[in-house]
């Protein structure tokens, strides 16, 4: 199953699976010849520029990185919800203006 097929717009379910609002699943990878941990998107294509600023770098503790991933995923869903509400308001205003014209 591809990443797109796994994507479900249900926020709570996706937050528990560490899937952000863009449909990207986040996991923890290990540095090749070391003990440091990295945040990696799944599937990992090795493109470090795709890593958001909040998750870049090397991490020493699994719990710290897991919390950073959860915080990032929650923030993307919060931004998506705010954008949805804003767009709904905008559409309602345009609809009302169309009725009064």
How would you describe what is shown here?
This protein has 101 residues and is mainly alpha-helical. The chain has one domain (3-100). Helices cover 49% and strands 12% of the residues. The chain has helices at 3-6, 11-16, 62-100; strands spanning 25-30, 37-42. It has a two-stranded antiparallel ribbon. The longest helix is centred in the C-terminal third of the chain and has 39 residues, at 62-100. The relative contact order is 0.14.
Short description:
The protein is mostly helical. 49% of the residues lie in helices and 12% in strands.
Q: What is the overall silhouette?
A: elongated
How many domains, as an integer? 1
Number of helices: 3
Mean pLDDT comes to 84
- Structural category: mainly alpha
Residues in helices, as a percent range: 40-55%
Largest sheet: 2 strands, antiparallel
One letter per element, helices H and strands E, the order comes to HHEEH
Low-confidence stretches: 1-5
> What is the rounded distance between the termini?
49 Å
Arrangement of strands in the largest sheet: 1-2
Q: What are the key terms here?
A:
disordered N terminus, 101 residues, single chain, elongated, mainly alpha, two-stranded antiparallel ribbon
Topology:
Elements: H1 3-6, H2 11-16, E1 25-30, E2 37-42, H3 62-100
Antiparallel strand pairs: 1-2
């Amino acid at each position: 199953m591809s990443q797109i097929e796994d994507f479900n717009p249900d926020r709570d379910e996706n937050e528990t699976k560490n899937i952000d609002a863009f449909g990207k699943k986040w996991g923890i990878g290990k540095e090749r010849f070391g003990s440091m941990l990295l945040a990696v998107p799944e599937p990992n294509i090795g493109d470090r520029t795709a890593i958001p600023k909040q998750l870049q770098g090397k991490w020493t503790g699994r719990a710290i990185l897991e919390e950073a991933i959860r915080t990032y995923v929650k923030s993307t869903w919060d931004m998506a919800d705010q954008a949805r509400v804003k767009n709904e308001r905008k559409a309602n205003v345009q609809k009302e203006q169309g009725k009064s014209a």
